[in-house]
Design goal:
Structural class: mainly beta
Strand content: 25-35%
Distance between the termini: 56 Å
Largest sheet: 7 strands, mixed
Low-confidence stretches: 6-37, 191-206, 216-221
Mean pLDDT: 76
């Protein structure tokens, strides 16, 4: 299975002989990235989200700037199932002061991952409520918004394993229709592989040995 992850979970010590994961393969040295051609069947854009093999993508919440309380997720277009991934526990960090929401305050759990099944079409969605009243859901596919583009991707599938793909949303409730800053997430941004992290990263640092008569430094500092 392919896994495209954020840099916080980059693993080292992974085999450089692993099968290319769509756009990127991992090498042994600190998650070094090697560019590989993306399959024509891999799409991550306003038309669809679809991969030619099971692919795990991690998402990270960046910020929000809206009057609504929103939840970001994935919609399986084949089954109609909606899977929420990242949600605001409150609309803003400081309600009544400004509209800004940040990780750790408006969003308690800013990271999530989702397994996109091979050959299955998906779209991303943003579901929002304002002061607990009404619910508005917008999608990354304009056709499901009556033709309106309410999500903007700054890159495509070829960037998932490198700098990632930033997705800016218009929640359909607050702000102007062309600012795409009301809810921001990033998809991908690194590479993981199915092996354990290198012992270099996980081994505990040995305690410092107090000086004794036998190992004390000579002379004065």
């Amino acid at each position: 299975m392919t896994k495209i992850s954020t840099f916080r979970k980059l693993l080292i010590g992974c085999s450089a002989l692993a099968k290319p994961i769509g756009t990127i393969i991992a090498t042994a040295a600190f998650g070094t990235l090697v560019q590989s051609a993306a399959s024509a069947d891999e799409q991550f854009n306003n038309r669809t989200v679809q991969f030619d093999r099971d692919t795990i993508i991690e998402f990270q919440f960046l910020s929000s700037n809206n009057s609504a309380q929103s939840t970001f997720g994935v919609l399986n277009l084949a089954t109609g199932e909606k899977i929420p991934l990242i949600g605001e526990s409150r609309a803003q960090d400081r309600p009544g002061r400004n509209y800004r929401g940040t990780a750790g305050k408006a969003v308690r759990k800013p990271f999530a991952e989702f397994t996109f099944k091979s050959g299955t079409p998906y779209t991303l969605y943003l579901e929002s409520t304002q002061k607990g009243k009404g619910t508005t859901t917008v999608y990354s596919v304009p056709d499901k918004n009556g033709g309106a583009q309410l999500a903007r991707f700054d890159n495509d599938a070829t960037s998932l394993g490198t700098q990632g793909v930033r997705i800016g949303w218009n929640d359909g409730i607050s702000g102007r229709g062309n600012d795409f800053n009301q809810f921001l997430v990033i998809a991908g941004g690194g590479v993981g592989c199915p092996c354990k992290p290198s012992p270099i990263l996980t081994a505990p640092i040995p305690p410092e040995v107090p000086p004794t008569r036998n190992n004390a430094p000579s002379g004065r500092g």
